[in-house]
């Protein structure tokens, strides 16, 4: 048994170290050029690198906690991302950093204790984007035709072969909503696709943007074969119920392209949570809002398992002890991530020359 566990650990460590293989599994429709472009972006930006290497994140977390599917893993990844953001955007002292990260934990448990609680921290950290702003943000109009604005650094063109496959396989999905054909397709900075649909008429201003990304197995389930099997055996209806409850609209769905499942959804106005200034209090509000939002997903009242989790967490978790342990782990991972990123950054990738 110990040998099996060791072999699994080595197997997933190898996966974590081979970034190009990870990209192939996360973005299976990408061509070599797009994969190489993303690898180059990962070398220049540690946050992009973190976003695209989830298996290595879980490998570190699981070695420290020895608990699969742990709610703390979501906390761990968000806190790790927040720490990187603070280090890149500000110059807080170590004590202020820890106080801000602690606000995340506090916000999380405040929401678990009272599901009807509304958090002022969200209003203070929220940046509102209106429905129409999406079209202005991502598209352009030329000769009375709307298309994606590929002059944006975050958007890239998709080759005709990929476009043809995506158009063909999404026709049934669009037809279900009485929508017209796809006008344009691009790929964003994280390797996900954006689809520009004609909408329900030929008017330019009712066009709709959809996002399309590979529906991969949750990373913690990749280590435990029994959990992976249970996840994959869930019916499509059950999966879509969960997806729709989290995404709060009827466009969220799983579709199949070739042999791969993809998650498709209408690109909604981004109610971005972000610090409103460089002050400590603004970052505390932001961190508390993130914790509050995460707890809202974990304690989703529409799902029995979520209600049971919230009840157990309220009764059994020692908040102060959890805060101490998880922040220690986040800082340890931050050091390990920087070392790993520097090693990857030192690799000579021919595509980046």
Question: What labels describe this entry?
Answer:
353 residues, alpha+beta, six-stranded antiparallel β-sheet, two-stranded antiparallel sheet, 15 helices, globular, disordered N terminus
What is the gist of this entry?
The chain is of the alpha+beta class. The chain has 15 helices and ten strands.
Q: What would you note in describing this structure?
A:
With 353 residues, this protein is of the alpha+beta class. Helices cover 58% and strands 12% of the residues. The chain contains 15 helices and 10 strands. It has helices at 2-17, 19-26, 32-44, 46-52, 54-65, 71-89, 94-113, 120-125, 131-138, 160-176, 225-233, 236-247, 280-298, 304-316, 319-345; strands spanning 126-127, 139-142, 145-148, 156-157, 182-187, 193-197, 208-214, 253-257, 260-266, 272-273. It has a 6-stranded antiparallel β-sheet with strand order 4-5-6-7-9-8, with helices on both faces. Strand 2 (139-142) and strand 3 form a beta hairpin. Helix 6 packs antiparallel against helix 13 (280-298). Mean pLDDT is 79; it is low at 1-17.
